[in-house]
Specification:
This protein has 2 helices and 4 strands; from the N terminus they run ββββαα. Strands 1-2-4-3 form a 4-stranded mixed β-sheet, covered by helices on one side.
Length: 111
């Protein structure tokens, strides 16, 4: 899948650690040099014993990982790669809150 990030084409790749070592120890990884984002498609194999709907949890987690890595891409393409905006806690906050913010913006008819 290809997406536009501030005029740059990024490729989102659903993969595994075995196929893409970039994922080793991560659920997702963004390379602004390669314009690629890798997402571990097996991210919820390890959570099957939790008793929750694993497929739904996996789907939600993959969406979160994609948002998280895309925010890294936006920050990097904005020229702010070395700024506080690229700290994991800020990126993760934005990834978690963006769907809620988008819904509110749509309700307020300001998009």
């Amino acid at each position: 899948m290809n997406v536009n990030v501030l005029g740059e084409k990024y490729t989102i790749i659903m993969s595994t650690e075995e196929k893409h070592p970039e994922l080793k120890g991560f659920d997702g990884f963004c390379s602004s040099n390669e314009k690629k984002i890798w997402v571990d498609k097996e991210v919820y194999k390890k959570c099957e014993e939790t008793g929750i709907d694993v497929e739904k949890a996996r789907e939600l987690r993959i969406k979160h990982i994609k948002r998280h890595e895309l925010i890294h891409a936006f920050v990097n393409e904005s020229g702010l790669a070395n700024s506080d905006l690229n700290d994991e806690w800020i990126v993760d906050w934005l990834a978690r809150q963006t769907p809620k913010m988008l819904k509110t913006f749509q309700e307020a008819d300001c998009i």
